[in-house]
Amino acid sequence: MSNALEVIERQRLELQAYLDSQKTQAERNRLGQFATPPALAVDIIRFASSLLPPKVKIRFLDPAIGTGSFYSALLKIFSKDDIAEALGFELDSHYGEPAAQLWTNLGLNLKIADFTLVDGYPRFNLIICNPPYVRHHHLQNGDKERLQHCTQQVSGMRLSGLSGLYCYFLGQTHAWMAANGVAGWLIPSEFMDVNYGRAMKMYLLDRVTLLHIHRFDPGDVQFADALVSSVVVWFRNNTPPPNHEVKFTFGGTLLEPKITRFVSTTALKHEKKWTRFPLLDIRVPSDNPKLSDFFQIKRGLATGDNSFFILPEEEIISRGLPMDVFTPILPSPRYLIHDEVSARTDGSPDIKRRLFLLNTKLTEEEIRNRYPAIFSYLEEGKARGLHERYLGSHRSPWYSQENRPPAPIVCTYIGRGDTKTGRPFRFILNNSQATVPNVYLAMYPKVKLARVLNSNNNIIRRIWSALNQIIPYELIGEGRVYGGGLHKLEPSELGSVDAAFIVNLFPELKISNKATQIGLFK
User: Fold this and answer.
1) Cα–Cα distance between 282 and 285 in angstroms, integer?
2) Cα 467 to the center of its chain, rounded Å
3) Is 372 part of a structural domain of the chain?
4) How far apart are CA 328 and CA 301, in angstroms?
5) Which helix (H) or strand (E) holds 147?
6) Which of 136, 269, 443, 468 places its Cα 20 to 30 Å from the Cα of 501?
7) So what's the pLDDT on residue 487?
């Protein structure tokens, strides 16, 4: 039988490669079609065998079976006599019909249907799935409402409209799970950190017994054609016992992870960022101030089209455009060799790559009369349809920019942990009058800090130096991670970073809960 299975698996891989080649990358992205690598499928099924009772008859379900990578692994790990039933669903007949033919007479009932439209019957004791990674904006509004309603009915999960399709798949399989049945889900890790994942986390903590979450090293992307950081989530369909602890592992394989930590469900209910585990300790509630107590943090400017609105100094000169309607703007972090930006006498950055943002509130008629060269340039933008794009059509005039004054400190918004410094994020001291594009977070001192800064210009330098001493994992623990080791920080996430060091440096900045409540630092 093993030789026959090897032949079938080779045929399946050839079939998978052929079927994938018949679709564009954009089509597969839209439908979230990323096949599970065979070695990973075997690891997952082998791990599942350690969670099942001995000599149990397996009733297997894969709600998004594709060409059958998990079923192939199931036959490799279990004997055919161990499998009482195997059911798979595949929405796309492009994959489903050839796969059904491949598995004919091999015990798999493969249905070409939308799993989310089929009523469940709770008889399956092993559910393994790599659900379609379809982002919420690819779901039609009618589908979203139906999925939200059905998922809440069967699992109690009240999912946000920002949830990806994989969240609905996980919730709706609750109707198919037998009591004490085991489920293993290969899904993106983002649910562990983002707001829309909260409902799913509550389901995993309250409705079932969450057993184990294994997070792959984000530098080791599981799917070469999908930039996601993957986890395998294991749970059992029973009421969680008191004082239950969840096993978190990181790196390596499911059976041989690099790092392991057990975390109580009580702690998990109070922790917003589950990707902190197992690398970081359980966060102890603290009254320490946060960066948001001292800084208003905003994302840099989204111009609508950087290639049009941001021009090098040389191009402005060669086109004969007036500098009156341009504002200095910092280039991408890769062009900033140092973490401090000096200024020229006019306030513009004293750096090699000098860029300027077209930034005016003048009407087109005023521009035509005062700056005919700029008017001609704006006509070029119109010819490219910039005034009809989302940002342009929502601004008045279409070429105007958000108010984003220079910030004394800016932080890079996205980065990798494998840099020479090991720091995915950089804090840059901006001594110039340059604003920043949306690859940065701008940090504006709030009222009390601003008053102190006005009395002593050296303070901002000391704060900047201290920011760059923050342990990288303190920042990473607040942010989110994507495939390939790409880390990202949103303004609110940077604002959540502990800022006790600021008070330690400057005791006069100590804040009280009362001061925060009355808005002293607005």
Assistant:
1) 9
2) 24
3) no
4) 12
5) helix 141-155
6) 269
7) 81
DSSP H helical segments within 156-299, as ranges? Answer: 165-172, 198-206, 265-270, 291-294
The CATH number for 491's domain is: 3.90.220
The CATH number of the domain holding residue 193 is 3.40.50.150
Task: Name the residue with tokens 């294994």.
Answer: 214
Residue 235 tokens, joined: 């749970």
**Does residue 79 belong to any structural domain of this protein?**
yes
Write out the two tokens for 394.
Answer: 């929502």
Structural domain boundaries, residue 499: 291-306+405-517
d(CA 9, CA 384): 50
State both tokens at 73: 């692994």
Rounded to whole angstroms, the Cα distance separating 75 from 393 reads: 56
For the sheet with 177-188, list strands across it: 109-111, 83-89, 58-62, 124-129, 177-188, 230-236, 209-215, 245-250, 259-264
Query: What's the token pair of residue 290?
Result: 């946060």
HSE, side-chain direction, 13 A CA sphere, residue 50: 10
Task: Give the model's pLDDT for residue 135.
Answer: 82
Indicate the pairing of strand 83-89 with strand 109-111. Answer: parallel
282: Cβ–Cβ under 8 A, 6 or more apart, which residues? 263, 264, 267, 271
Quote the number of domains for the chain: 2
Q: How far is CA 144 from CA 129, 160, 162, in A?
A: 21, 9, 9
Shared domain check, 302 and 257: no
Q: What is the pTM of this model?
A: 0.72
Closest by CA position to 274, among listed 214, 223, 228: 214
- Statement to judge: residues 188 and 301 lie in one domain: no
Q: Measured on CA atoms in the order 273, 274, 278, 282, is the torsion positive or negative?
A: positive
Same domain, 295 and 213: no
Three-state DSSP at 232 gives strand
Is 254 part of any domain?
Answer: yes
Dihedral in degrees, nearest 10, Cα atoms 513, 514, 516, 517: 110
Considering the domain architecture, whether residues 226 and 301 belong to the same structural domain is answered as no
pLDDT given for residue 515 in this prediction: 39
What are the tens digits of pLDDT across the range 342-397? 999 999 999 999 999 999 999 999 999 999 999 999 999 999 999 999 999 999 99
Q: How far apart are CA 73 and CA 100, in angstroms?
A: 16
Q: How far apart are CA 255 and CA 51, in angstroms?
A: 12
> Residue 261, SS3?
strand
| Domain match, 170 and 253 both | yes
508 shares its domain with 428 = yes
Average pLDDT over the chain reads: 89
- Cα–Cα distance between 70 and 72 in angstroms, integer? 5
Please indicate, yes or no, whether residues 57 and 203 belong to a single structural domain of this protein.
yes
Q: Cα 413 to chain center, whole Å?
A: 13
For the chain, what's the residue count? Answer: 522
Same domain for 255 and 302, yes or no, is: no
